[in-house]
Batch of 2 targets.
Target 1
Amino acid sequence: MSGALELIPVPGLPEIAEGDDLAALIAEAARLADGDVVAVAQKVVSKAEGRRRLLAEVAAGERARELAAGLDKDPALVELVLAESRRIVRAERVLIVETTSGLVCANAGIDSSNAGAGGEVLLLPADPDASARRLRAAIEAATGAHIAVVITDSFGRPWRVGQSEVAIGCAGIDPLDDWRGRPDRDGRVLAATEIAIADEIAAASDLVRDKAAGLPVVIVRGLGERVIAEDGPGAVALRRAEAEDLFR
Amino acid sequence: MSGALELIPVPGLPEIAEGDDLAALIAEAARLADGDVVAVAQKVVSKAEGRRRLLAEVAAGERARELAAGLDKDPALVELVLAESRRIVRAERVLIVETTSGLVCANAGIDSSNAGAGGEVLLLPADPDASARRLRAAIEAATGAHIAVVITDSFGRPWRVGQSEVAIGCAGIDPLDDWRGRPDRDGRVLAATEIAIADEIAAASDLVRDKAAGLPVVIVRGLGERVIAEDGPGAVALRRAEAEDLFR
């Protein structure tokens, strides 16, 4: 890739509710072309998939109540976090977990920022790669365009201030660009360079997304060489096994 | 921001050597316009600033030799890492440090991927924000365009596979976009959302940079509203104080 790249926000999407055909709405709102990568914010995927929960309807168990007390959190929220997790990574001040789908993030990625007492929260899609594959297939069927889909969410990062958008699901693109063994400009072989392309696409898409204006879908145009026929390994390939994590 | 955004690689830069006037070379090779953000790969900044070192000329001290033995690394490289660091974060399998300029990364960001025994390595700029400010001032003087500069480097991340480009220095743009307290689409106030814009710009720029083709400079066009008159706080604002790091 050495050509220019365009990031185009897609206006005109309605507020998404459970059961909405998100792929059809995207196909209608976006003018998609072959080779486009469609970056979709997790929030609308979760809403379409009915991943809302009411904290008032959640019964917190013993473990959730204990953890919640130590963290000064809502026991109902902690109960949901535990239900969405396979492992607690850290439980000091914040609750960092590995989700059932293998993502390491605060509060299992549950968006409770607007939930009052007993209020509504939004869970991550149960299987974001599967969501990406379904969206891709349906958007391709509706538009005839050969595209890739990346589902994105904002994660905090160790060591750095602020959140950055990352890929939690993808289809039609390899999330990693493996430069290991390829020669660089000077003909020398590059060592240990795997680039997390899907995360960089997610981050790029966030630059044109105005949270206040509600622009959950961004077209990334100019990466056509990276759009593949198969769905590829999915964003699960970005999840580092604990034993292989040199930073952990 | 809700308009489209363009990422334009800048071809035609020569191989950079110590003492080269990088700003003049960029001003000549790029057609810059008001509001452009110029993303510059750390590698060319370090080269222009003479941050090359020969491992053969480095005398490893006692501590470096001990650490190197435990990590199976070149003692000369470890000596350079220690000299560039204010603190060791981790020394198991890899050496994660906080650099003298406050970045947390492997091997103090020293690029030794192409260094044979005794060979040449490249250090990070001594003060990447100062480098960004100097580049900005000189590019603005040469072109008359009102721009921002972001200096980027590829960092590995805890919990996720692959490297992603981040901002190690910046001038003319606030590296953080603070959404805390602003209302969202539904009129509800957003909680705890600070977006690391400079890191997202760095990641985006990497998508059009072909490492083999040698394209260290990328123009990010469409973020003019974010380009400010002053230099701003610099990428140092992205470096989380250890005590405030909920992930650590």
Target 2
Amino acid sequence: MTSPIFTPAFRADFENLLRWRRDVRHFLTDPVAPALIDNLLRQAMLAPSVGFSQPWRWVLVDDPARRAAITENFEQANAEALANYHDTQAESYARLKLAGVREAPVHIAVFADTAAPTGSGLGRQTMPGTLIWSAVMAIHTLWLAAAAEGLGLGWVSILDPAKAHATLEAPADWTFLAYLCLGWPAVPSPDPLLEREGWERRLPPEPLILRR
Amino acid sequence: MTSPIFTPAFRADFENLLRWRRDVRHFLTDPVAPALIDNLLRQAMLAPSVGFSQPWRWVLVDDPARRAAITENFEQANAEALANYHDTQAESYARLKLAGVREAPVHIAVFADTAAPTGSGLGRQTMPGTLIWSAVMAIHTLWLAAAAEGLGLGWVSILDPAKAHATLEAPADWTFLAYLCLGWPAVPSPDPLLEREGWERRLPPEPLILRR
């Protein structure tokens, strides 16, 4: 098999994909076809993994009671986070409406199976974090594949992970990594929401690169 | 600005990119133009980051003495890792020739700046790991952007991270995440090296997906 030649046009579109892959918080309520979700997960599992361990695990959350428990978990954690900010920063933070959990039609929790025998521990004796990082790269792959379909994804990290784990009755050996909201975005934009809202600006690249 | 429409042809090429993005260990010694490296790093920094914290930090390693120290670090960690495997698994492991550190023309160490004020801690009070995971997603972005140029990347995780940190004289607040080898691949292939070598097989997707 010969390796494919990616064209300059593809690379331009790929960079466009990176730019339009946003953390989406505002969704239309239109459903997403189950076959499309399956297709995205299939692509996500093409991500790299240490020792080819493939530790990613996905939980599709449809049960309204579990969704309500996750929403409550978020609201409590969000209120506690808000208490740590002051003045205009707190106001700005509140305005961000950080969770799409109420609007997004698809909810996907992501875990890493830290007990899976796959990969036989290869490559992670000195750096054990690489197992979880492999699942994180699968989340990122899902994110990009979704953006290529015009779908938005929002990563909710303002959650008590132990509580979310219990709500979802996931196996004990799994580590909770992320709660993802997926759906058709209400307001597509190439700029990070946090940049639009004045929370943070994009850093110039040069100071982030050292030479040794 | 209206959002771009990604075509089915682009999506097919993108999936092809995911399939051909391999962990490469065998490189040609041909150089990679510095402008191309800059372009890849610029794209990598379009990755998502918690609170738009942009914690990724890159160290381009050119100094032969530092490269030699990293190689020695790898060889020592690799020998220790090998001692933990037995019989045919160990032989197979030895045959993998896990590092491209001797051949790859470009060496990039990646860190996360855990003390950076950017993002003001947003989104990581309940899940502090998300800061490092943001830099991991930038590594993955670099990997894909490199693959789109026909470049191969290999992630060396069999290293003592503290020793690598010292070798590279990186700031103390930075966390060492990865040592990347980049170059033109000697043997392009869409199958993981570890699968070709019989180390591990790709898992079927369904058992990795739960419904709740």
